[in-house]
Automatic annotation (TrEMBL):
Residues covered by the Glycosyltransferase 2-like domain: 1-149
One Pfam family per UniProt: TPR_1
PROSITE patterns: TPR, TPR_REGION
TPR repeats by residue range: 313-346
Native species: Alicyclobacillus mengziensis
Keywords from the named record: TPR repeat
Listed name of the protein: Glycosyltransferase
InterPro entries hit by this protein: Glyco_trans_2-like (IPR001173), Nucleotide-diphossugar_trans (IPR029044), TPR-like_helical_dom_sf (IPR011990), TPR_rpt (IPR019734)
Length: 359
């Protein structure tokens, strides 16, 4: 991993892996808060690397010092789930694969809340000594298809890694968005992968709620994918329609979202967005059909970036609203109760039931 001034979190990260890995290498890019001492106390080898504006360069420096057959890379603000730590070593069973995904659980919002979670299968384990390296100054990725063009990318170990780096307080304290935008703009000028750079810029502007700029960049991302005769990944369409929803652009979002669903019919987030959009357009039977598809799909397809609740309690809550609008109050009550059965702490559904009881 790479680190700079991570004393608040790096100890928990290292403690979560030290018993399942053979060596720990931390590349420090200039800590002044005692991070290096914490790393040493957890048995890590600490290497100093002057920050040069590239996360990939820092990771590759650490990679050059690693001796193991497999690499497991993490961020300092991540932790491997205690119940899943032993699963990491299942990687040795993948005799015919060079890259393996884990179950990444991303938290967002003001505090850790299991209703504000995004989940995805993410490539974090890969073979050493075969030429794999990181590319990109920021949101660095492995050069898998340059080295192994035919590599299948669906190998998966259900070991959860919890990521807290985009909680509101961390983003503000570390000035992440301004830092990220500066590095991404430099990436854009340098060429590289403009489709992903535009996508990542759009993500940062969406976090700032600068939705017009975000929308411009996500459309540029889609255009660059298509120009390279590549299908834009599902999470790019997810971002596009979340931006339109946040700006209340219902007519801009529908029926366009139906075309995205034709490309990714198994992506629950797109069906949820369609249900939400149709609800706003007062097309309640159509919204119910979309939300029914959400609960059929569930949230287990982690080849997509999945929002927790979109295939379960949040979908049932919106179904309850649709039933209310249609005057089908018994069905509405049943839908709200189902949302609460799945997630007893879901206050929106509880409040909806309370309001119904007052009628």
């Amino acid at each position: 991993m790479i680190a700079k001034d991570e004393r608040d979190c790096i100890g928990r990260c290292l403690a979560s892996v030290k018993d399942v890995v053979d060596e720990i290498i931390v590349v420090d890019t200039g800590s002044k808060d005692g991070t290096q001492g914490i790393c040493g106390a957890h048995g890590a080898t600490v290497l100093e690397f002057p920050w040069n504006g590239s996360f990939a360069d820092a990771r590759n420096f650490g990679l050059s010092q690693a001796s193991g057959d497999w690499i497991f890379f993490l961020d300092a603000d991540e932790e491997v789930d205690e119940a899943d730590r032993h699963k990491v070593r299942e990687v040795f069973s993948f005799a015919d694969r060079s890259v393996v995904n884990i179950h990444l659980v991303n938290y967002y919002g003001k505090e850790v809340d299991d209703k504000k979670v995004l989940e995805i299968a993410h490539p974090r384990l890969f073979r050493n000594h075969i030429g794999l390296r990181f590319i990109g100054n920021i949101h660095e990725a492995l050069n898998v298809h340059d080295v192994i063009p035919d590599e299948q990318t669906d190998a998966f170990i259900d070991a959860k890694v919890h990521h807290y780096g985009y909680m509101d307080d961390v983003v503000v304290r570390k000035e992440k968005i301004s830092r990220n935008l500066k590095l991404l703009e430099a990436d854009l000028k340098a060429g590289g992968s403009p489709q992903w750079t535009h996508y990542n810029i759009a993500t940062e502007y969406a976090r700032l709620q600068q939705y017009e700029r975000a929308y411009q960049h996500v459309n540029q991302a889609i255009l660059h994918f298509l120009q390279q005769q590549l299908m834009p990944p599902s999470l790019v369409y997810r971002l596009k329609y979340s931006i339109l929803i946040n700006t209340g652009s219902w007519d801009g979002a529908w029926p366009g979202i139906e075309r995205a669903i034709q490309l990714y019919p198994d992506y629950v987030d797109l069906h949820f967005y369609m249900g939400f959009i149709l609800l706003q357009k007062e097309k309640y039977p159509e919204a119910l059909a979309a939300l029914e598809r959400c609960t059929e799909l569930g949230e287990g397809n982690l080849k997509h970036l999945v929002t927790r609740g979109f295939g379960s309690f949040q979908a049932w809550y919106l179904k309850g609203i649709c039933y209310e609008k249609l005057g089908q109050l018994n069905q509405a009550i049943a839908a709200y109760n189902e949302a609460l059965r799945i997630h007893p702490g879901y206050t929106d559904a509880r409040e909806a039931l309370h309001q119904l009881a007052q009628k």
